[in-house]
Amino acid sequence: MILITGGSGFIGKAIAEAFDEDVVSIVRRGDSSGKGKCVQFDLTQTTKSNELVSQLGTYKITHIIHAAAVTPWAAEPDFSDDLKMAKTIAALTRELQIRCVYFVSGWNVYDMSGKPPFKEDTPLKPIGEYGKSKYEVEQYLSRSLKCRLVNLRLASVYGPGQTSPGLIPNLTKTAFQEHEIIVKSSTTKRDYLYIGDLVNAVCNILKLDLGDRANVNMGSGTSVTVASVAETIANICEQRYGFSVRIIDESDHNTQTVTPDNELDITKAQEKQLLHATQTPLRQGLELYIEWAKNENIF
User: Fold this and answer.
1) Angle 174-6-30 (CA atoms, 0-180°, nearest 5)?
2) Distances (CA, A) of 3 to 22, 59, 66, 99, 145
3) Interatomic CA distance for residues 23 and 269, integer angstroms
4) Alpha carbon distance 205, 21 (integer Å)
5) Which of 82, 121, 186, 278 has a C-alpha 20 to 30 A away from that of 59?
6) Which residue, among 102, 116, 140, 133, has the nearest Cα to 274 in the 3D structure?
7) Containing H/E element for 102?
């Protein structure tokens, strides 16, 4: 059986839905929005890990997918909580004799001063507090776990189920509410991975033995500009929903404040048949996200 942390979050919930009855999700206390079997527990409470072990003792858990994390868009993000959660995960692996932990990391652990796409052996130089936290958890788990560890370094994930802020939700929301999109950094490029493709890859990777320590990039294999994303959203609004969207470019091309391109090299994932060449095209993914968001009254 699989244990998933962050079971009420965007990625954790999507993965849990794919496993159905073969998964137990950990959600925060007072949160009942997880899928399937749920255990309510605050993973930052490292001194109470025995309590969690007792709750999980009735399940024969073999693998952990650690998708719980402090997000940059939280009201008051305390990234030190990520390391606390990692310590609880380490305790669980010892007490429950876990075979492998899959940590949901991200592209922002890499040194992106070079030319993309970035491979798994690219030097690490985390970007911002969020990237530093991902890096620190990777390092801690590598030192502390006796079982196998796979770091899943994700590109920018999007799709149905995403309620947190992000470029695609933000642009879509203003397109529907204001009939306009303001672009702040039109030439910035991002590698967008559709949530369904990520879930399929995670389901496949559980069948593989990648060794004691492994890093795997998961992305789309290409990157597109923010301007292109805005144009595609505007086109979908006009063709499918019958209204025009004005795009306003307020980019300051003389000031570079963000990483220009986060494209990941996904050769390894493709060779392992985790990701395929026939991934969900960005336009199709955007159409699916927008339709879901409309049905859920997200905007």
Assistant:
1) 90
2) 9, 9, 8, 12, 16
3) 24
4) 19
5) 82
6) 102
7) strand 100-106
Q: For domain 2-159+192-221+263-279, is the CATH number 3.40.50.720?
A: yes
Q: Which residue has the tokens 């959660």?
A: 85
Where are the chain's structural domains? 2-159+192-221+263-279
Q: What is the pLDDT of residues 274-286, one digit of tens each?
A: 998 789 999 999 9
The tokens 């794919």 sit on which residue? 18
Residues in the chain: 299
Report how far residue 105's alpha carbon sits from residue 133's, in angstroms, rounded to the nearest whole number. 9
* Token reading at 46: 């490292």
Tens of pLDDT, residues 26-81: 998 666 555 568 999 999 999 999 999 999 988 999 999 999 999 887 778 899 99
